[in-house]
Design a protein that fits this description.
The structure is a homodimer.
Chain A (H helix, E strand, L loop, with lengths): L8 E6 L8 H13 L3 E7 L1 H10 L9 E3 L10 H7 L4 H10 L5 E4 L3 H12 L9 E7 L4 E5 L9 H19 L5 E5 L10 H12 L3 E6 L11 E3 L2 H26 L3 H17 L11 E4 L4 E4 L6 H16 L2 H11 L5
Helix pairs in contact in A: 1-10, 3-5, 4-5, 6-7, 6-11, 8-9
């Protein structure tokens, strides 16, 4: 997929990001690097700690590609405050490298809000994009549906929802190879007349576009796979995403509860457990390689705080793919074409 | 629980409402009546059809309590249009009986939108209530959480969310006997500062109230049971409700899919199925007796189109309970007390 005429992709990984940093970040990043030499890897963070992980795990990594920083943005830090008060943190330094075109992509499993703030404020938006969007992957009966937005921004205006649809469509086309992906607007009924003020206006904008807009979809359609891109305000998407996580936990709880009521139940649950586990593998976020933050003028991938080395590896490989597919430029060109209806 | 000084409760059941009308509606209503003689029951609909169900099932029912109507609002009819163009439909006639104080409660598993329109436009709102709300029940680790609103209205204003909280709290207290029920505002983060414009303002209103307001909750908390009443705009609540239904169907789909891959898988799934079924019984809406439409100046209960006789029976008994607990007056008095902050 690599275009030999393009300069080599440079990916920066936040070694200090995530609940198991620097271990998981370093192991995952180097694993990705060893499996695909088509990019240059930089690790940003406290050098001694990074080197210790490398040594402890008998790995080799070019010392010059470790960028030393002295500060750490903690998971509990207030995002915008932190990126101001901690200029020598791995998140701020990583974002600056992308801003200054010294790197093409930044990957972090650190403080989500700080990553979003750094990406939006330091790297900046793609010209023509009003608001960047964070997407997520939800399994469906036949594959995976993407949902934009799931938390980058609330109180989205109709034009923002339109932008999410454009960016989501490009992402799905370029990364999943789905031509003309179907786009659905999340609402409270399938009819054109159902929705709130914002979605009713967004519906009209989407109808005018060249996107493969199928109209409104309902909550139950999200997991049905009837569309490739679900578009919604970040307030709704975030609540949905976390509700889905809650659903998985209540299932686990019900299983435990059922098992506690006698030996026979316990045996049944043991059998059920492995079956369910196999089935629910689809819901495992690690497989999907982090959520892309689209609309930022550079590649930025945000991982779950509890990312495993495998999750980090997949995030790095996803960043490489986004670079190869020229996602940022494609979004810029596409949104430019819609300037007349926005 | 009945107050002997109160006049006998009069409940009207829409015999034509639901996918299996008049059969399920008539059987469920008469079953409720036979199990609790503390109320008077009226069946509204096409008399011959109602009587046929009664005869076919060897039941007895007072002929004078069957109110004959000639029109039927179908499931696909446009709500507000239908209640205007079909004045002799069971839904319009039932709502009018409550409006004219000839009945205390109206129960229907018919066209949800038409029931909502008839309740709001014909029966009318409780003085001081800006918008009625439809609630739903969601199972949680320890019992059941209620969610208001799940579809009565979109683009709710902060004062509407406040009203949902007041009405939901009274419902949970009176019907479930939970003193001082915990109220959570559905948002994208637990901190006071997280939310959209509407929830941020609603948060401040709720903080000033005497409700047991615990603050913002997130999507994952809905099923955790950390609060008794979840408050949200109907757009969000409706999407959440239908997403939950979708989650249950994808689980079933995954089971079928897994079972299709070999005999051993099939056997395992057979075992899993009964276990899951027992566990997921909590998710069965029939147990909960329909969703209450609160804020209407009379008792109105809306059932699922596919309501079984058991579901209808539980809806009727729920209506009786709401009458006994004087829910409508309690809501009116409570909202009056908050007039200074609204």
């Amino acid at each position: 997929m690599s275009d030999s005429s393009k300069p080599k992709c440079r990916i920066v990984v936040d070694a200090m990001g995530g609940d198991f940093a620097p271990r998981n970040a370093v192991l995952g990043a180097i694993d990705a690097f060893n499996s695909n030499k088509g990019f240059e890897l930089f690790l940003v963070g406290i050098k001694d700690e990074i080197k210790k992980v490398i040594t402890d795990n008998n790995l080799t990594f070019n010392d010059e590609n470790i960028i030393h920083t002295t500060q750490i943005i903690e998971m509990g830090d207030t995002p915008t405050q932190a990126i101001k008060s901690k200029p020598d943190s791995s998140i701020v330094v990583g974002a600056k490298l992308v801003k200054e075109k010294k790197a093409d992509a930044f990957v972090s499993a650190g403080n989500t809000g700080a990553m979003m703030a750094a990406s939006t404020l330091i790297i900046g938006r793609i010209p023509g994009i009003g608001r960047p969007t964070i997407g997520t992957f939800m399994p469906n009966e036949s594959g995976v549906t993407t949902v934009f937005d799931v938390g980058a921004s609330v109180d989205s205006k109709p034009t923002h929802l339109f932008e999410y649809a454009v960016m989501g469509s490009i992402f799905v086309k370029e990364i999943y190879g789905i031509d003309n992906p179907k786009v659905g607007l999340l609402s409270v009924g399938e009819e054109d007349t159902k929705g709130n003020d914002v979605t009713l206006t967004a519906f009209q904008l989407l109808k005018k576009s060249q996107l493969n807009f199928v109209g409104n979809i309902e909550g139950r359609d999200v997991l049905k796979g009837s569309v490739h891109v679900v578009v919604c305000d970040g307030f709704v998407g975030n609540i949905l995403l976390k509700f889905g996580e809650g659903f998985l936990s209540i299932l686990k709880h019900l299983l435990r509860d059922y098992a506690s009521k006698g030996l026979f139940n316990k045996l049944k649950v043991l059998l059920v457990k492995s079956t369910l586990k196999q089935m629910l593998k689809k819901f495992d976020y690690q497989e999907y390689g982090g959520v892309p933050l689209l609309g930022v003028n550079g590649i930025s991938i945000i991982g779950h705080g509890s990312s495993s080395p495998l999750a980090i590896k997949n995030m790095v490989l996803r960043a490489k793919e986004m670079y190869d597919r020229d996602l940022v430029n494609k979004i810029e060109n596409s949104i430019k074409n819609y300037s007349s209806i926005l």
